[in-house]
Amino acid sequence: xxxxxxxxxxxxxxxxxxxxEEGDIPLEESLKLFEEGIRLSRFCNQKLDEAExxxxxxxxxxxxxxxAHPFDPSASSGQAPLPDLEEEEE
Amino acid sequence: xxxxxxxxxxxSELTREIxxxxxxxxxxVWIEGEISNLRIPPSGHIYFTLKDDFSxxxxxxxxxxxxxxxxxxxxGLYVIGRGRVSLYEKRGDYQLxxxxxxxxxxxxxxxxFLQLKEKLEREGLFDPALKKPIPMIPQKIxxxxxxxxxxxxxxxHILERRFNNLHILLYPVRVQGEGASSEIAEAIHDFNRFTDxxxxxxxxxxxxxxxxxxxxxxxxxxxxxxxKIPIISAVGHxxxxxxxxxxxxxxxxTPSAAAELVVRDKREMKNLLHYLGxxxxxxxxxxxQEYRTHLSHLKKIFKEPGKRVExxxxxxxxxxxRLRLLTSWTLERKGEKCLxxxxxxxxxxxxxxxxxxxxxxxxxxRRLEQNVKYSIEIQRQKVGGTLGKLDSLSPxxxxxxxxxxxxxLPSLQILKDASHVEGGDKVEVRLDKGVLLCGVEKxxxxxxxx
Lengths: 90, 450
Prior knowledge:
heterodimer; A: alpha+beta; Helix Hairpins; two-stranded antiparallel ribbon; 2 strands; disordered C terminus; B: alpha/beta; CATH 2.40.50.140; Rossmann fold; five-stranded mixed beta barrel; 14 strands; 48% helix
């Protein structure tokens, strides 16, 4: 199953709400829509909270591969923000 | 006649001398003119003619110098060049060997920008249909910029404020100077190869056109075009437009604006979700309530079926009685009409009529008889009167009183004048009783007074 996208879920949710508001829906259908709406709403909320706060800087090692290191912008505001690559490697 | 000693030069000697003179005289000139007849053979040297309204001069820009050009020379371009005049001995052509040329009226950078822009546009790199959508809630954001300075800090600050749980990957690059463009291009490439960021921001803070130049290089444009990850460009100030801005999926006027564009405010999103959830719930409850109401209505109907049936019976009875009433009333009316009709029919019975007519006839006859009788009586009476009169008038009655009537014979003409007869005529004299036959003896004019 492909990864569900936040914006898709949100627009589905909006559509469900307006469908319900337009009315004239069989009871069973409206309950299904409600269930789906609740699921989408939870999904969206979860997406909003999901990511972990993290700021990293990517540095290329000698082998040409990238490695992520924690990045502190406040500390880097001054000079020489880059960790010394030679030291970092190995 | 003595001629001075003649020195005859060879073509090469003369050409060499002319060449020396030209090269000594014009070792370093500035010149402006319009490029025409431009051609670049495989050698890589650029040949063209510089011309103005009246003259033209062959020119060449050797490969070494041509490589440093920021723009592509083309026909019709008006340039300012610097170089020396030389002569190509083999052909005896003199030409201008240029060290550098610059487009006249605008900087080389500006021209290069326009040329690259036109080229990429023609190739379709700016096609709006190719722009990838920027995800609404990116889980991971890549940033390609300088790790130093205020720009990255501002961006991180804004991202943090709007959305407090983002994963941000910074790819540090030089953003100006030699090699910056290839670093930027490589960073874009690496993000695509090695990471799973949902979107990336590529940019730097403001500066001169030279400072921003890396973002006008083709290598950056190509890398952006190849990227599968959506890219937000964020170069310089709001008024700066770079090639990168045109190729990017979204242009942010500044790096800070890019940070604002890339994520919505988390609280806003939460509010929207809360709002939608509320509407969802309310609406569903309302729908349930509607169904409940409908259900209870239906229940009411089915609760007392007997009553319903009774009601129907009552209505049925009502219908019947009305029907009956209506029927009898109709019949009555029809009967009445029938009676009326037969009466009038009876009245029009021909026997009856005959009888009536007969009595009328009798009556008429009776009255006729009466009239006739009366009329006869009247006539009779009238006749009676008349007879009396008649009687008195009758000559016969006069005879009774002694008069007589004399008529001549044989004509029986009544005689009133004696002259009508003469002696010897026979006359008849009628008396009251009987007749006398007489002969006339004599006539006299006048009767003798007796």
